[in-house]
Amino acid sequence: MKPTDNLMDQHRVYKLVLTGGPCGGKTTGQTRLCTFFENLGWKVYRVPETASVLLSGGIKFNDLTPDESYNFQVNLLKTMIQIENTYFELAKSCRRNCLIICDRGVMDASAYIDTDKWERMKNANGWNEIEMRDNRYNQIVHMVSAANGAEEFYSTEDHSCRSEGVDLARELDYKSAAAWIGHPYFDVIDNSTDFDAKVNRMIECVCQKLSIDTGDRLLRTSRKLKFLVSGPLSDIQFPSFQDFNVVHHYLQTSGQRVQTRLRKRGQNGHWSYIHTTRRPHVHGQSIEVKTQLTQRDYLNMLAQKDDAHFTIFKKRRCFLVNNQYFQLDIYQEPSHPRCRGLMLLETYTSLEGDYLKRSLPKFLNIVKEVTGEPSYSMYNLSLKEDWNNTKKFCYSLHDLIIDDGQKHPANMKMLVNGKA
User: Could you say which of 107, 216, 246, 374 would form a disulfide bridge with 314 (CB–CB 3.0 to 4.6 Å)?
Assistant: First the structure.
């Protein structure tokens, strides 16, 4: 039995953080999400917001000295970690698939603390952001505050611990989103639709990450887009960003219509590990099943590496622009000549036309959209053989062109020095 077989046979435990600015719809969204997954037969645990639990006991920040405030934040974070761990342990013993919805996560604390105090807190407790942000949770969903784009609906009346005005709510909304920049699966749900559709988009993005077919229960509008970018880049033009080193290895598979790969992603010597399987869906859509790995699992699976592919090295830059989360992949050496100078920008969005154009980063030179173009597929980019001489080039997982039992590339373009 392959190591991956055990991973896929186990029941699923999915740790989700539902965060956002004041009056963003977290409470209603959490209730709707819980009902949706319970109807699918999942066990759902809802981790309460630790800050609300503690503050409802009579604590007022204005009454605390600076030292008391700092110590309270440390203890709040430790309490949050312990409460979450209690639910995480329960989920491990559950025989059903289990969704854990965390009302905010540990990185949200950094939005309410000065940077120097946050660094002091991490150093004093041996915390690092790869473990706290990337490895602790499977997905982060940020519900944008009504103060940012739906001001007429902003209210603090129904929340006993909330008193922020619109301007402060906007500021806190951005800070809470910025705290999660860098998580590999971070989704921002803005106010571009009415509230009911906003909640549906939130549920939809969770189902997409879990490869759950929702049929016609939700309007599927969000899709992954990819754009070709040309240099040079200037760091000073970027908003707040996080850079990561990323390494991809493709693994051997039993058939041409299944792709599996390993990903190692890290900062400052701390790493997270993911196993991904891509296969065509029965309705013609490719789905990805992602499984978080330990370092030991990752090293064991490297023995299955496919020698037909180069290892892919990237620098991945993550940032927020106009309430949109972007990842810029900058291909690094060593690489095939076709990857030299290549930069690809990715985002998930439901926007189209002029609305989409206005949401893209103006400081980047975006050459064109390349979504779905096989010449920009990482699977094809990593192939060792020349594309004109290989049978492994993948045009599509579901629309393969077959002739005498052989797969042939269709509309294939050669990519040299980042240009098609």
Answer: 246
Which residues have CB under 8 Å from 354's CB, separation 6+? none
Dihedral sign (CA 398, 400, 402, 405)? negative
Give strand pairing partners of 101. Answer: 16, 46
Which pLDDT tens digit goes with each residue over 26-47?
Answer: 888 888 898 888 878 899 999 9
Are residues 238 and 363 in contact, defined by beta-carbon separation less than 8 angstroms?
yes
pTM of the model as a whole: 0.72
Helices (H), 141-294: 166-178, 195-210
- According to DSSP, residue 138 is labeled S
Asked whether the bond before 22 is cis by omega within 30 degrees of 0, the reply is no
Instruction: Measure the CA–CA gap between 106 and 342, rounded to whole angstroms.
Output: 35
**Could you tell me if 15 and 102 are in contact, meaning their C-beta atoms sit under 8 angstroms apart?**
yes
**pLDDT (tens digit per residue) in 238-258:** 998 989 899 999 999 877 678
Length of the chain: 420
Rounded Cα distance, 342 and 272, in Å: 24
Q: How far apart are CA 240 and CA 126, in angstroms?
A: 24
> Hey, what are 357's tokens?
């154009």
How would you classify the pairing of strands 139-143 and 186-189?
parallel
Query: 112: which DSSP letter?
Result: G
Residues whose CB is less than 8 angstroms from the CB of residue 327 and which lie 6 or more positions away in sequence, other chains included: 316, 317, 318, 345, 346, 347
Whether 237 and 256 have beta carbons less than 8 Å apart is answered as no
DSSP letters for 272-290: EEEEEEEEE-TTS-EEEEE
d(CA 350, CA 198): 11
Using only C-alpha atoms, what is the Rg of the chain? 22
DSSP 309: B
Pairing label, strands 98-103, 43-47: parallel
Query: Would you say 37 and 110 are in contact if contact means Cβ atoms under 8 Å apart?
Result: no
